[in-house]
Write a structure and sequence with these properties.
It is a single chain. With 374 residues, the protein is an all-alpha fold. The chain folds into 2 domains: 1-80; 81-362, Na+/H+ antiporter like fold (Up-down Bundle). The chain has 17 helices and 2 strands. The chain has helices spanning 3-25, 29-46, 57-71, 88-100, 105-113, 115-139, 144-155, 162-168, 173-199, 207-231, 233-240, 243-261, 263-294, 299-310, 314-323, 332-352, 359-373, and strands at 78-79, 82-83. A hairpin with a 2-residue loop joins β1 and β2 (82-83). The longest helix is centred in the last third of the chain and has 32 residues, at 263-294. It is globular and about 60 Å long. The N and C termini lie far apart (55 Å).
Length: 374
Amino acid sequence: MTDSSYKFLLVTGLLSLAAAAVAFFADAKDWAAPLLILGLPALAFGMRRFEILKGLTYPIVILAAAATAMFYPQYFIQIGDFKLSGLIIPLLQIIMFGMGTTMTFNDFMGILKTPRAVVLGICCQFAIMPFLGFAIAHSFGFPPEIAAGVILIGCSPSGLASNVMALIAKANVPLSITITTCTTLLAPVLTPLLMKTLAGQLVEINFWKMMWDIIQMIIVPLFIGFIINQYFKKIAALLKDYLPFISMAGIALILMVMIAAGQKSLMNVGWLLIVAVLIHNLGGFLLGYGAGKLFGMNEADSRTIAIEVGLQNGGLASGLANQMGKIATIGLAPALFGTTMNITGSILAGWWGRGKKDLSEKAKLQGAKSNDSQ
């Protein structure tokens, strides 16, 4: 695209959002919704002209998708006799398959290379977020199924976007990949166990069914993708050109279906739930980073743990809510968390990534100097 095209999109986006704000406060909400939905994508793609802002393109597009589903839910619930919620599990399986095609045996070697950091990351992931979610859910006094959704997103493994965010933040990408992989593989046991313990009084939790659902949704497609990447290199190389775009589109569609299904419930608890989800997300970043520093991790590793803890697998939580038949209630918090974490995670990663030095390399150099002086 030319500079003039980027400028046109940027100006169009800003003017549309300004007009949407005016229409909203003037009580012309029929105009506010389409102007907002037009303005967000235009702004997102216009910002790609600026290196410092281009990382926000996908989060803003996700925000536009969420707004579209919120204002026009009727288009994302059912087409003819087919309920669009039936797409959630297949889309999640495709996304996890795509993750599997990027995995190698070296990812598991990270456990041997940095066992302390990996164990700390896993412990933080399955301690901080579930119990923080439990505290938030009860503090806000949400209805049982809404509260269970807040706890569910906390009990999920690391988010799939964490590896990209770690790269942008100049954190420890191999460590990020290792923690994501380990928490994902532990999820079939730890997620239902934590849900049974923390949310069992709010909603009925079938431990074995949830375990089997997680195995079907993430472990099986992840394993198939891993096998293809190891033994069918040409197929894996071909798939890698398309799967990232399919995965991004799949995440956006899952989000839209979830928000559309829960639109009525969201109207009742909307702003309160958004605040709760934001506290949960930012609390994960803060406590994860603090835990890294507390246990003597270097800056790159502390950033990595913060990102891993703060970004959750919203797709898995959405799939589980759908399997429980509670997509419109338990599924609300995962849908909102997925939108929020993409925005906050991109901003945090961009802020941390402003420096020119690679912190992981800096840490290695400092370690080498320390060894030389001994």
